[in-house]
Amino acid sequence: MSRIASIALLVLTLVSPGPKAEEVNLPVVRTDIAYGSDASQKLDVYYLTGKKKLPVIIYVHGGGWAFGDKADVGNKPQFFARQNIAFVSMDYRLRWDYDVLDQTEDIVSVIGWVHQNATQYGLDANKIILMGYAAGAHLVSLVGTNSSFLRAANRSLDELTAVIAVDTASYDIVRLMVELGSFIERRQHRLVFGNDEEVWRQASPITHVQKGKAIPAFALMYLADQEGSTLQAKGFAKALAGAGIETIIIPVNDGRVDERLGTKGDAPTQALLTFLRAKI
User: Fold this and answer.
1) CA–CA separation, 161 vs 128, rounded Å?
2) What is d(CA 193, CA 273) in angstroms, rounded to the nearest whole number?
3) End-to-end CA distance of the chain
4) Assuming Cys at both sites, which of 89, 144, 168, 195 could form a disulfide with 70, CB separation 3.0 to 4.6 Å?
5) Could you read off the pLDDT of 27-57 as tens digits, one per residue?
6) Are strands 217-223 and 160-166 parallel, antiparallel or unpaired?
7) Rounded to two decimals, what is the model's pTM?
8) Do 229 and 173 meet the contact criterion of CB atoms below 8 Å apart?
9) Domains located in the chain, CATH noted
10) How far is CA 182 from CA 185, 186, 229, in A?
């Protein structure tokens, strides 16, 4: 049976930490690798040499669908390297020259890049985790629930091991626009998604949650002191669990959640690591 698990601090104290940074090699970094023909379709890959079949996180940065950079990764590449997980951070085509469908296409292209280059970088293409922050969390959730994006590239949802969504209020854009969103959030979403409610619905990950679609496990990190973030995450988690999809929710009390991921003593990081260890 499916379940929603909320990770408690008591549980986190029982999680054994990974090896100290000085006990392992830091990852090798290869930057600005092209995965498409557009100038913005570049990625950085962080991986340990001499390792084979490393699970890989594909990270999608935030920035309101219009800003941001693949270099905005904080401590995450080094932290995940210590857990023997490779880290791929991608740029993608941004608004206003492109739209959200182009951005989802870019994520699928990077999944293809992992498959094509797994041997060269010691990656395990059978253990791909999508991870995104803010707008990036919306995008990875959309790719992880709407099978049409992967199917268009002759791929499928069962190629994904898990999706990690960090702090987004855009799981249900219709609800944001009519109920939960602030004036600024609604204005931003109108600029990105327009005024058509059907477009909002199709751009909402919650719309595409159904049983039997091979949707991967989800970890949802949300800001517990923000009502919109909390209600969106819990509503999405309920839909996922109702469709039989393994789901955990991780409440966070620090607005710098993405920046702090991978730092020493960070409880949400340890909760996330517990989730990942069970999947890979």
Assistant:
1) 5
2) 33
3) 20
4) 89
5) 899 999 999 999 999 999 999 988 889 999 9
6) parallel
7) 0.91
8) no
9) 4-279 (3.40.50.1820)
10) 5, 6, 11
Q: What angle do CA 21, 29, 122 make, to 5 degrees?
A: 90
Residue 68 to residues 99, 102, 192, 229: CA-CA distances in angstroms?
15, 16, 15, 21
Q: Are 132 and 164 in contact (CB under 8 A)?
A: yes
Is residue 122 within 8 A of residue 156, CB to CB? The reply is no
Question: Between the CA of residue 152 and those of 39, 112, 248, what are the distances in Å?
Answer: 23, 12, 29
Output the six-digit token pair for 147. Answer: 């099978």
Question: What distance in Å separates the CA atoms of residue 252 and residue 169, rounded to the nearest whole number?
Answer: 14
Read off the pLDDT of residues 140-155 as tens digits, 9 standing for 90 and up. 999 999 999 999 999 9
- For residues 137 and 166, the answer to whether their CB atoms sit within 8 Å is yes
Q: What is the DSSP secondary-structure string of 117-138?
A: HHHHHTEEEEEEEEEEETHHHH
- Helix (H) and strand (E) counts in the chain: 11, 9
Token duo for residue 83: 């857990």
Closest C-alpha among 213, 72, 69, 228 to residue 144: 213
* Residues forming beta bridges with residue 10, ordered by sequence position: none
